[in-house]
Amino acid sequence: MSGSGPCVLLFTDTLGDVNGVSRFIRSIGECALDTGRNLRIITSTNFPVPRARNISNFPPLAAMRMPKYENLELALPPAGAVMREARRLRPDAVHVSTPGPVGLLGRCLARRLGVPLLGTYHTDFPAYIERLFCNESLALGCRGFMRWFYAPFARLFSRSDEYIETMSGLGIPRDRCLRLRPGIALESFQPRYRDDAALSRLCGSPPGTVRVLYAGRVSVEKGLPLLAEAWRIADPALHSRKVHAELVIVGDGPYRAAMEELLRGTRTVFLGFRHAEELSMIYAGCDLFAFPSTTDTLGQVVMEAMSSGLPVLVTDIGGPRELVRDEQTGHVLSARDSRHWAAEITRLVTDSDRRTRMGRAAHESVQPRSIQRSFDEFWDAHTSLLGNLRDRHGVSPA
């Protein structure tokens, strides 16, 4: 692949998976192609990935489903083949987006090639493990691994201020931590994609139904037990007022069967994974977004919902709260108070004027957060670091 400026190899364990990190990496890969930047994405997965000239997917030597995440894959990359490709591409820097086997290989290659190592702290794995396995020892071990893994990084990005503190708690010096402007593909998430008739057919519910949306992994670390309890309270209250409303769950994961059982008898629709134009239509066609996660470093789906014109409810723990102006674009609610969540859901479902006003403000608030701006900032940080090293040591990039 040709391109202007330095060559950066980005290593990621997630590119074929359905999650916000994967969508972000795909998007910055497209930005690199559009702007002629020499960013090459390296991954190893059996899942399908985009066919793009700056993406190299190496068939795994072995792969297994992740415990508690059977729809995600843990893959062992072919180190020799990846090393040969890396030497051919002669990168000026390596960027690691995930601390899995592919990310670990990228970390090793940076040292062997003698190039700067940068990364993004996308996922709070210690918090995930603590919530999924309810085992403090496992979480402590994970924190130790993360501390070791990120120790040699010259720069480490976070997409929220809160996780700068988390990174500092792992022993990463603050002068190595950078806040990266969050961004999404704004054109893919707009109110104009609303199609009430199409969404009614998909959900099997009548037109005019007010829909509360959750999108993301269906797993306990996303706070879904709290949302399930809140909807068990809100749904009968709304029904008694003769309000046609339903909870729409987009995504899949290990908690789905339990959540379906908990919400049996309520007006809830599970749509599974949805993609591309259909996902855009679902966002725009719903009326309120509820995201009770306490483990997200940013919350890509929160920005997608806001850009689609939805007011959002988030918890007071984690990165998503930094996206929300309380009482203006949504609400920041206690992560432990399902009754408060039920009350706010009921309040917004029954007040269309307030929903419309907050949804319009939410849409406007994220329009400056384009993926192109985020990528430009990402790229400038890499070129700035390389320039500083060149000035300090009097050498040119490889």
Shape, per Cα inertia axes: globular
Mean pLDDT: 92
Q: Tell how many strands the DSSP assignment holds.
A: 15
What is the topology, as strand order, of the major beta sheet? Answer: 3-2-1-6-7-8-9
What is the helical fraction, as a range of percent? 40-55%
Strand-and-helix sequence, N→C? EHEEEEHEHEHHEHEHEHEHEHEHEEHHH
Number of helices: 14
Oligomer: single chain
Description of the structure:
With about 400 residues, the chain is of the alpha/beta class. It is about 45% helix and about 20% strand. The protein is built from 14 helices and 15 strands. The chain starts with a strand and ends in a 5-residue tail after the last helix.
Give short descriptive properties of this protein.
398 residues, alpha/beta, seven-stranded parallel sheet, six-stranded parallel sheet, globular, disordered C terminus
Concise account of the structure shown:
The chain has helices at residues 20-35, 79-89, 101-113, 125-133, 136-150, 162-169, 196-203, 224-240, 256-262, 276-285, 300-307, 338-349, 352-366, 371-393; strands spanning 4-11, 37-43, 55-57, 62-66, 69-76, 93-96, 117-120, 155-158, 177-179, 210-215, 245-250, 268-272, 288-291, 312-315, 330-333.
Write the layout of secondary structure elements.
Layout: E1 4-11, H1 20-35, E2 37-43, E3 55-57, E4 62-66, E5 69-76, H2 79-89, E6 93-96, H3 101-113, E7 117-120, H4 125-133, H5 136-150, E8 155-158, H6 162-169, E9 177-179, H7 196-203, E10 210-215, H8 224-240, E11 245-250, H9 256-262, E12 268-272, H10 276-285, E13 288-291, H11 300-307, E14 312-315, E15 330-333, H12 338-349, H13 352-366, H14 371-393
Parallel strand pairs: 1-2, 1-6, 2-3, 6-7, 7-8, 8-9, 10-11, 10-13, 11-12, 13-14, 14-15
Antiparallel strand pairs: 4-5
